[in-house]
Write a structure and sequence with these properties.
- The complex is a heterodimer of chains A (98) and B (174).
- Chain A is mainly beta.
- Chain A has one domain (13-86): SH3 type barrels (Roll).
- Chain A has 1 helix and 5 strands.
- Chain A has a 5-stranded antiparallel beta sheet with strand order 4-3-2-1-5.
- Chain A is globular and about 45 Å long.
- In chain B, strands 4-3-2-1-5 form a 5-stranded antiparallel beta sheet.
- Chain B contains 4 helices and 7 strands.
- Chain B is of the alpha+beta class and 174 residues long.
- Chain B has a domain at 3-88: SH3 type barrels (Roll), CATH 2.30.30.
- Classes of the chains: A mainly beta (98), B alpha+beta (174).
- Strand 4 (69-80) of chain A pairs antiparallel with strand 5 of chain B.
- Chain B: Residues 2-75 form the Sm domain.
- Chain B: Binds specifically to the 3'-terminal U-tract of U6 snRNA.
- Chain B: Keywords: mRNA processing, mRNA splicing, Nucleus, Ribonucleoprotein, RNA-binding, Spliceosome.
- Chain B: Belongs to the snRNP Sm proteins family.
């Protein structure tokens, strides 16, 4: 497993987001939604533009929580207001199921 | 392009706005501003639970209340094309500008090529600036121009109606 060397300015938001542009990301919103998509652009407030976005809807199975079901709903282009984002992360396409 | 630029470019397009409350507004974007305040028209407002709907001819949304917005896919493709075109155009202009200014150190007029709008000159030249207009038009076509009359030339008349200018080089070579 390669160890990623972080450049010194990677701890600023802008630099961190810049590396994720045009990459597949997961965005967790404060209301609990989980969006996946390709990050196209951002700004200083972390407003995001997501292309080919889809939402994973998690439905827990009654009784047996192990076999939870995911629904996938495609949503097109999102412009997300930055304050509603809880977290965002880049997706490792090698490990991705889609 | 920036998220707010994308939003501005989406004026006239249908879009869906979800508010922090969970309400959704489906309508056409009329205008937006830097705070993400929007005006929409032909709007259908849905409640958070999706049970009730209201039809509004016009609607104003304060940007603060927005959770996210969804726009048509085609819009993003259209914008990317426009962006590419603009970038290619401006790249060509940049090279032309360098040619015109080669060896021309007095000319501080930076808008050589597409200077149809001569606001720089209007601001700095208190007298009739026909000269400057002519010079700028010529800059587009001729390379060698040691003129000092472009850009920051100031001319004034003293009491004896003698015209002065603060440029040493008053000769325009064409």
């Amino acid at each position: 497993m390669d160890s990623t060397v972080l450049p010194s300015q990677a701890f600023t938001t802008a630099a961190a987001l810049l590396g994720s542009v045009d990459k597949k990301v997961v965005v967790a919103l404060r209301d609990g939604r989980k969006l996946f998509g390709i990050l196209r652009s951002f700004d200083q407030y972390a407003n995001l533009v997501l292309q080919d976005a889809y939402e994973y809807l998690y439905v827990p199975q009654f009784g047996d929580l192990e076999t939870a079901v995911y629904g996938k709903q495609s949503r097109g282009v999102y412009i997300i207001r930055g304050e509603n984002v809880q977290l965002m992360g880049e997706i490792n396409l090698d490990l991705d199921d889609d | 392009m920036l998220p707010l630029s994308l939003l501005t470019a989406a004026q006239g397009q249908p879009m869906m706005v979800e508010l922090k409350s969970g309400e959704t507004l489906n309508g056409h974007l009329v205008s937006c501003d830097t705070w993400m305040n929007l005006t929409l028209k032909e709007v259908v407002q849905s409640s958070p639970d999706g049970e009730s709907f209201v039809k509004l001819p016009e609607c104003y949304v304060r940007g603060y209340n927005i959770k996210y917005m969804r726009v048509p896919d085609e819009l993003l493709d259209m914008i990317k094309e426009q962006d590419q075109q603009n970038r290619n155009d401006s790249r060509g202009q940049h090279y032309q500008r360098n040619n015109n200014q080669r060896g021309n150190f007095n000319n501080r007029n930076y808008n050589n090529v597409n200077n149809n709008n001569n606001t720089n000159n209007r601001r700095n030249n208190y007298n009739n600036n026909n000269n400057n207009n002519n010079n700028n038009n010529n800059n587009n076509s001729v390379n060698t121009n040691t003129n000092g009359n472009g850009g920051n030339n100031r001319q004034w008349q003293d009491r004896n109606n003698q015209r002065h200018s603060n440029n040493k080089d008053n000769v325009n070579k064409f």
